[in-house]
Amino acid sequence: MERMELGDGRWFGVNHCRGARLPVLFNFCATAGAGLDDPWYGRIAMLAGAENWRCVSIDLPCHDAEAEASGKPYDPLRQWREAMAAGRDIVGEITSLGQAALDHLAARGLADPECVAAFGTSRGGFAAAHFAAVEPRVGYVMLLAPVTELLRLREFAGTETSGFIRGFALQRPEYLAALCNRRVWGWIGANDERVDTDAAVEFFRGLSRRAAAGGDFAACDFTVAAVEGHTSRTDCHDLAAAWLWRQVAHRPCRSGCRP
Known about the structure:
259 residues, alpha/beta, 21% strand
């Protein structure tokens, strides 16, 4: 991983800073290092990097350096809850950093803004979907066992009356409207009680209906798999990558994304 500074105290990780204008894959998980270098969470970036994509990842708020600096036991989602209950816009911080990273790369001729994908696992899926919802340059979204509503997480128990936290549920009409014109891939286990399979199904069903109402019956590719718990199969990143190559083949861009 190479680190790129934005000049305002923020930074992001990238698989490399060399070469010309390339398609870009954002991988959201917990930390930039995991998103680019971890054999499990970073596999999608390794697959994309091998196909000449520039891969980007960030530290999510309350993870890694911020968590260490807090002096509290490592429990990032509980820290999200505390921060958001106090009005901190965790989601806005994620999307702002993602957009700044993309702007930074594009301004230096290192990114093709016409070919941008976002992938995320669990809480990273929540981050990836929100990033895509506010960033129209993201054409492809891949969500693996995603959190779709924070209130379904045990860490957010007791915040059910918070309109601020409830407002980030991906099932809300404004997010469905923002995402229904993208290509979206999703995968979750049939009995995922950690992030709630039913919540993910509700999100993808709503997204599919929105897209179909506009005449697009192929916007979503969503699988509910026969696995137990909050987990995924070892080939899920490969499935997502293969899906992405197929989508790009039908919507080629100037940088020459892999068909």
